[in-house]
Amino acid sequence: MLVGTFYIGDAMSSVATISDLSAHTSRQLSSLSKPYLGTGYGHALLKSLHAFQEGRGPDALYIFWDPNCIYCHMLYETLQKNPAAWEKLTVHWVPVGVIKPTSMAKAATVIAGGMPALRQDENQFNLTDESGGAAVSTNPKTIAEARENTAAYGGPMSQDKKSESLS
User: Fold this and answer.
1) Among 10, 94, 111, 127, which residue has the least CB neighbours within 10 Å?
2) How far apart are CA 78 and CA 135, in angstroms?
3) Are 104 and 161 in contact (CB under 8 A)?
4) What's the pLDDT tens digit per position in 124-157?
5) Between 1.10.10.10, 3.40.640.10, 3.20.20.70, 3.40.30.10, what CATH number should domain 36-164 receive?
6) Does this model's pTM top 0.85?
């Protein structure tokens, strides 16, 4: 069931059908110059991501996680409060930078530090500012890895230049 307003091209429709959405998605995907997760290259692309895992369950869950995302923060807290989930799931945390200008550089810090850095970001998350607690990285290698994750996610790469101003 789909509820809400859907945007198809420049038109807005509150009664879009699945076939309308599917056709629109197919047109959008065919215009991409390189593969991303929604194009059928998903499995190979997932294996190439700069990610780390938590849990030991048979089912895999890939979470594209922005250090400054309040919803990512709420999901993290929900998962941490449910220890039974770790018996059922293997969560692959994939740091991306899409929310704020500092997101890419913070994602790079988390890529470099793995789960301890993600936990630090989450434990120091500022709910008022909706900002994670990770430090801002200046490491070109891990910033490039965060960009690769973000490109695979299909996120806006326009944030790249903004995130380089590490203020």
Assistant:
1) 10
2) 23
3) no
4) 999 999 999 999 999 999 999 999 999 888 765 4
5) 3.40.30.10
6) no
